[in-house]
Amino acid sequence: MTKRRRINQGLPDNLYRKQRRGGWYYSYRDPLTNEWTHWGYAPEADAIAAALQLNLELLGRRDLVGMVLKKNKPNAQRPLAEFCDIFEQQILPEKRNRGKPLSKATMDGYRQRLVHIRAAWPKQTFADVTLDDVDALLDKYPARQSNVYRATLMLMWRYAISKGWIQDKHNLPADTIPRSEEVERQPLSLEGFNSIKEHADPWLQRCMDLALESLQGRGELARMKKSDRHLEPGVGKVLDVVRQKVEKWGVSARIRLVIWPELDAAIDACGDDQLASPYIVHRKPAKKKKRGDWAEGRDHITQVMPADISRAFFAAREASGFYAHLDKAERPTFHSIRALGGSMKVDAGWDSAVVSDMMAHADEETTNEHYLSKHHAGEWTLICPK
Question: Residue 84 CA to chain centroid, in angstroms?
Fold first, then answer.
């Protein structure tokens, strides 16, 4: 447990005080939800008594006899909230993602969900929780968040079954139906694109134009090297692109774009800064760092990482204020430029199959469903080969 500040030493857990106007001001932090209740200038004896009673009600008795009785109690009769502690402190730290421990952000997400799970069933055993109880908890959250909670509960139940906490061996949360996650983000309009571009740094402006013309994502743009544009015998000038996310599909991940004038101009514009770099999309670093201090994966001081593109786009989007009326979860991201560019090409008469190939999707249906449908919902589009 974190050492308490000197001013709060001697007080019960979760009780805090500040000296104001010559008196003591008391506040209590709920150990399950982290919510604060401010008691004000209450007498110290009353504040201490109330905190002790709340700790007892919310956290249960922690005396030595209780510890012994808990050890001798069968797992199936122990509170689910107690298993949450084991899940957080023993099981999750041992989990691995691709051979590595869970990241701090992932662990923080689990901890936050466990706070709410403990609060939902503070004294119930696993046997006490019904399917209606699980549904009621999941219904409190939006679709995507609800499905994350569902996955956490299913994982908890799996471990609880293996450790004898659930006698009937039934994974109850698995009986619930996942919520349908609709696409939340609003499409990026050309007006919005131009507004964001006006507030972007020059290197990001060039990157946005290249994304709009090439229909490539931030990962592909960050990896594009000047040597990827070359003359192919019998074909002409081409740009080679490998899309990592669909590399498992084979040839669809390796695309060779026969360069058209607008794409050629967008690539040329990326070199207008006269900065020596092997990468098409690049920028001058804010301050020179030693190679050992570079971000992981960076092999040149001018290289732009995918996360750099996302952060810069986010900053420009917020500075523009164009999408300020939307919730942050609904505002377009850099990835939305692909949908806008694909829509514009179809409007200009490009064959949607060609657009699908440029986006390197496994099939044309993916392009129509996840990208073009946003911009052509309810409209008839005449698709002509370019």
Answer: 23
Q: How far apart are CA 267 and CA 264, in angstroms?
A: 5
Domain locations in the chain as residue ranges: 6-59, 76-175, 190-376
- Give residues with Cβ within 8 angstroms of 67, minimum separation 6: none
pTM of the model: 0.52
The class of domain 6-59 in CATH terms is: alpha beta
Q: Which of 181, 213, 208, 179 is nearest to 195 (CA)?
A: 208
Architecture of domain 76-175: Orthogonal Bundle (1.10)
Q: Which fold has domain 190-376?
A: hpI Integrase; Chain A (1.10.443)
Please, what is the Cα angle at 349 between 348 and 353, to 5 degrees?
120
pLDDT along the chain (386 residues), means of 10: 75 88 85 84 87 80 50 76 93 88 89 94 93 94 91 95 90 92 81 96 96 92 92 87 58 73 93 88 76 63 91 95 88 94 91 81 48 43 36
